[in-house]
Amino acid sequence: MSALPNFANQSSQLNSLKHFLDLKDLSHSTLRGILTLAKQMKAMQKNRKYPLHPAKPLEGKTVALIFSKPSTRTRVSFEVGTFQLGGNPIVLSTDSMQIGRGETIADTARVLSRFVDGMVLRTGCTEDLLELAKFASVPVINGLTPASHPCQVLADVMTFEEHKGPIKNCTIAWLGDGNNVANSFIEAAAQFEFRINLATPPDFMPSKTVLEWAKKKGANIHLTTSPYEAVKNADAVLTDTWISMSDSKDGKQARLKNFSPYQVNEDLMKLAKPNALFMHCLPAHTGEEVTQAVFEGPQSVVFDEAENRLHAQKAILMWSLLSDDWQTYGNP
Q: How far apart are alpha carbons 72 and 33 in whole angstroms?
């Protein structure tokens, strides 16, 4: 794993921690190893072998799941995944912690590191994740920030490959908001060598920093304002909700107006390859970013995506919390 950015003052111990903050921080071989383990984990669960992981690789380990934003898939998948691996998950909301009364992230990181073996943070402030990782002496996993959502995108790559085979050299079309998931998909395009076409309104493009990093890595990225151009001959069409929990009423109306041309509908899907997948990280607002017919249609794999959050995150937990033999636990 490459050194984390902006952490110049960390000790060698902290630099050696296996934080999972962004896809760009890990090597291709590590990401591919995590995906391989995730697929093995899913095969074990599909075969209903109980206990699912008889070795209980996380036995005796406790993972703090810290949420400052509402969560369904991230919370349940990490909580269930930790339990299935033999560990003990502790779910914490920032409102119920001293963070909510002014304790610093740095102090919280140093205290929790004395109690738990790893932390997952879902936050509305990217700087909080970086500070938690900087001061923690246990691995930290990014459960979502405004800047990125790497756990989601790793599960998405897993889902694509289940249905279509290797993602390398395939074309992914992203429509709508150049948000945190879009940023992580750009990083994934560089790491897994697929083409990504991003169609966004001019004022809602992805992070310039992420785009610059990906282009330096030789990623095949095409930016456009035309959803039709982005979708043409794509192997998968992806979108996300247009409305954030933090948007005001006036902001919602403005966003709906900006994004309405980017709705994924039946006519748009016809421009993609005939067997193209429709993907969405959920929750979805049918009638807005996607029509009901596409969301419930035969090309939709949205609930496979949701399920794969569990398996991908179990593999991430294994990589982060275990030593170099972490891959040996996934043999069905």
A: 26
pLDDT tier for residue 286 given thresholds of 50, 70 and 90: very high
Spatial distance between the Cα atoms of 166 and 108, rounded to a whole number of angstroms: 41
Cβ pair 312, 162 in contact under 8 A? no
**Averaged pLDDT for residues 5-23:** 62
Q: Which residues are catalytic?
A: 122, 149, 152, 240, 281, 309
**CA 4, CA 287: separation in Å to the nearest integer?**
41
Residues 56 and 174 in one domain: no
Q: Which residue blocks in 146-265 are alpha helix, DSSP H?
A: 150-164, 180-192, 208-216, 227-231, 249-259
Exposure letters 101-129 (e unless 16+ CB within 10 A, then b): eeeebeebbeebbeebbbbbbbbeeeebb
Dihedral angle, C-alpha 155, 159, 162, 164, nearest 10 °:
-130
What is the band of 49 on the pLDDT scale with cuts at 50, 70, 90?
low
User: Phi first, then psi: what are they for 255, rounded to 5°?
Assistant: -65, -40
d(C-alpha 259, C-alpha 177), whole Å: 8
108 and 244 part of one domain: no
Q: What angle do CA 267, 243, 157 make, to 5 degrees?
A: 65
Q: How many CA atoms lie within 13 A of 107 on its CB side?
A: 8
What pLDDT score was predicted for residue 294?
98
If asked whether residues 251 and 119 sit together in one domain, one would say: no
Task: Residue 61: name the closest of 81, 36, 37, 38 by CA.
Answer: 81
* Pairing status of strand 62-67 against strand 88-93: parallel
pLDDT of 15 strictly over 70:
no
Q: What average pLDDT does the segment 220-241 reach?
A: 98
The enclosing H or E element of 310 equals helix 302-321
CATH classification of the domain holding 35: 3.40.50.1370
- Structural domain boundaries enclosing 276: 150-306
Kindly report the pTM of this predicted structure: 0.92
Query: Would the pLDDT of 92 be above 70?
Result: yes
Say if residue 158's pLDDT is above 60: yes
The domain total for the chain is 2
